[in-house]
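Hey, I'm writing a tutorial for new members on how sequence and structure tokens pair up, and I'd like a real worked example in the thread rather than a made-up one. If someone can provide the structure for the chain below, I'll link this post from the tutorial.
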Amino acid sequence: MTTVVDQLREWQAMGGPDLWTRAWDHTVRVVEGPLNGYSITIDGVIIAEGAAGLAVALYVLAAENGVEPTAVTDEQVRALYADGVTGDERQAHWEERLSALGHANDPVVRVWRIVSHNYADPDGGDDFDFSMTRWGRGYTDGMARLRSRFGISL
């Protein structure tokens, strides 16, 4: 059985700068206890994407502020998620910050593309099965689930 933490470690193994690795390590330490072997099946993928979004947030905030990921506060992460803006605006803001840090097509951006993919609501129709379909972006939906269901914060 593959767990959410297994998936996180797989994404971390894609490589990247040292600060990125430290952001991943901190993220795994924060989520592994509350998730306690949570399977990747069903909504585990979204939860993993939420945790990967946390790693991106920790990395961006640590890099911008010249601190270790462990020094980033929950308030800073919440502010980065910026309630009150559209999903497209939030995503553009994060991408601008990653670009300003010099990321183009590297492991940081490859993970970002996975977790920020927008699963748009399809047009529907009588023959479309909505029961196992997801909408939105994993980094936001997954983070909301990490906070509400597992009580995860920094």
